[in-house]
């Protein structure tokens, strides 16, 4: 029996390798031991260096070791990523009526300086993330600005693909704001598109505006209200229509295994309202679905396929997220359509300098086509 302890550098505890069961199994295999204790460094403490953490926990990791290791009195090896304990800077802490405690923090990772919004109820889940880059301002001072080419979530790429399927001056409704990262990117990429976003939590809107560079534009309209109430109210207005409606809102109650969207958003009256609000057959209804319960997932998919003649979906590689495309027009989706629009998005993002610095293109079209499932 072999055993070790692994210290996660500060700011990296949210990464897939450390925050998911599958990732930890990969970490275990890479460490080449039979048992591994994984150590996370608490946000509320300061740690001078890696050695001080090892000294403090030397006795604890022995207590957690298999009996054969304890009896042998062997020294337990500590592992980490290099010799750096990592850097974390708390920008602001706050309290939200809807989400509880939250923190905006900056960490230095492989992708550079990252600013993150974390809800303390789910401390290993990144709610929003931007990358900061340092530039010299007109006064010769170094300042940090939002790197608008950076998309931390894979599923955001496919939501931009959805916008490419719409008319140039489309009007889209996004339920769920977060840090405003998605809205900002869509606006920079499709600057004629009108965006209406609904966010229930005023604290989230405040954070997005102050710390995540939420764009102010005549084409962006934010409503601080309950998304369910907003949709039902909009459906009562005879001339209110949208070219795309997206549910990208997290579920505060994850007991059902459904993290996004809340089950209330998939009930009959809400979906009936959605059907009234989509403007025509060319319009789209989009769902960022995060569901770990197989039976519930299958029921949601069946429900959407029953309501919409055209259905397509793509699952993310390293996340549970699944992006679902729905349309009232039969045979709306095809691999040829997604290929053409995927290439268009790549050309558009290149022309607007929105391609991440470490990537040749925003979207791997070949990989997307291999993973896309279509039911039209």
TrEMBL record:
Pfam families xref list: Spermine_synth
Keywords, ordered alphabetically: Methyltransferase, Transferase
Coiled-coil regions listed: none
Gene3D superfamilies assigned to the protein according to its UniProt record, in alphabetical order: Vaccinia Virus protein VP39
GO molecular function, one term: methyltransferase activity
Gene Ontology annotations for the cellular component aspect, listed alphabetically: cytosol
Protein name: Methyltransferase-like protein 13
